[in-house]
Amino acid sequence: MSKQKTLLLILVLAVAVCYANISGLDVYALDEAKNAEAAREMFESGDYVIPYYNYQLRTDKPPLHYYFMAAGYSIFGVNEFGARFFSSLMGVFTIMITFLFARKHFGEKTGLNAALVLISSIHMALQFHMSVPDPYLVFFLTWAFYSFYEAYKTNNKWQLLSFYLAIGCGVLTKGPVAIGLPGLAALIFLFTQKDFKWKTIWRLQPFGGLLLALLISVPWFYAVHIQTDGAWTQEFFFKHNFSRFSDSMEGHSGSPLLTLAFVFGLGMLAFIPFSVQSFKNAWKERKDSAMMYVLISASVIVVFFAISSTKLPNYTVPSYPLIAILIGAYIAKIDNQWFAKLGNRIGLFFYAILLIGFPVGIYFGLKGDKSLNELTNLAFYFIPLAVVGIFILKQGIARKNIENVLWMNISVWCVTIMLFFHLIFPQVDGQNPVRQTLPEMDTSKTIIAFKRLNPAFVFALKREIPMYNDVETIKQIMGNQPSGYLISRTEFQEELEAIPGLEFQDKARDLFENPTTLVMKWGMD
């Protein structure tokens, strides 16, 4: 296959996976709904300095992803497609620059493999389907990592400029982490190359470059600090950065092994049999400066979030493009002799059994969830994974055709991802509490919330839903408004039912969360 055809193939697959049905899935997940709504309120008000969610100050993240979403709303309308368009575009960009970087430094086959590793990662695809900051951070960090190495090796001023520009955009997307991760990786790399010298430091211009990066982000940080009297600054830096690292937040804690499970058991699920070996292979080839740099950069991200107190699956996604290169380089060199090692065969057999058991696991997982137990038929869509599992098991026993194993594995995961977004997840998504309860409500009436609120309601209604925390205020509102609805959770149902005139309307469990959304009403015939 020619280079042009390979490039086109990767582009087509990247677009197909990253944009798969982005308009057909509700903006529902908690973080996605908050971010999409904050961008909507920014777009509605025209105030691009202070972020609000439900018309209250939102301090979780800087605004660059809001700007992209506002642009999406301007072009495509305030809807799911507009909210997610640029997130998916970041995914396409990430895959393409990974392919180009890997091809340049490790060869055509490694470039193709690395891109296919990313394309066949269902967790990677899921991240680029969401209107959250992470797709943008992943792209900007990936761009920064690759640009640094190019600048280091070639002394290309444009690559150096790109490095600091990407960092500046990353800071405006998610904060100081965009400086820390590429900076630490670059520092360790220079030490390993025995090149931490004044001459090299001067050539890389870290002080001027950091100033450039800060010039991109600091004006907004300063403006929001002034306009919120420091409230945004204090909340963001101390609560959402330092506290997330030093203390677990919102119950998202765990062992460092949990981070490894996120990376290799979730992100690199399709390449479990090759993940550990790819790191070993990279260490063996550490004399290749490009290989050493990619290994260091991937390790910095994984270790950083492994020692962080707060652990979430999306935190380590920036490591995926780098790990994809390590895996791509490793599988580019293996042949049927790979089967000779017992450890390799055991890992492959374990993976094959995992694939064979996938439909069964999905079936019982859906059956065990009261809100989803009517969707057990969705398990049949995962039968292709079981089929390829049997094929892998057969080839492993015969110890031949490792290349066929790799291509069958990649192909079936690509098919599964397309089935997931177009056929499987839409049916699951249809069970979310907003889709279940909102059609039964007269949305022209007063709608308020008590103590807790699923944020997807705010985005769906595209208006403020006032939140109250005491029963007396609820009584006063009911006295002033002849009819309306109250949204809360079932944990507060007993307390709310004690209010005269407030009646049960509906309830539905929040998908992938423990709470159950409760809708009450008053003054309705």
TrEMBL record:
Predominant cellular place of this UniProt entry's protein: membrane
User: What's an example GO BP annotation here?
Assistant: response to iron(III) ion
State the membrane topology. Multi-pass membrane protein
The alphabetical list of record keywords is: Cell membrane, Glycosyltransferase, Membrane, Transferase, Transmembrane, Transmembrane helix
Name the PANTHER family on file. MANNOSYLTRANSFERASE YKCB-RELATED, UNDECAPRENYL PHOSPHATE-ALPHA-4-AMINO-4-DEOXY-L-ARABINOSE ARABINOSYL TRANSFERASE
Localization per Swiss-Prot or TrEMBL = Cell membrane
> What is one Pfam family matched by this protein?
PMT_2
Q: What is this protein called?
A: Glycosyltransferase RgtA/B/C/D-like domain-containing protein
Q: Which domain of life is it from?
A: Bacteria
Keyword Cell cycle carried by entry: no
Q: InterPro entries annotated for this entry?
A: LipidA_mod_glycosyltrf_83 (IPR050297), RgtA/B/C-like (IPR038731)
- Segments spanning the bilayer are 81-102, 114-132, 163-192, 204-222, 257-279, 291-309, 315-334, 346-366, 378-393, 405-425
**Annotated Gene Ontology cellular component terms:** plasma membrane
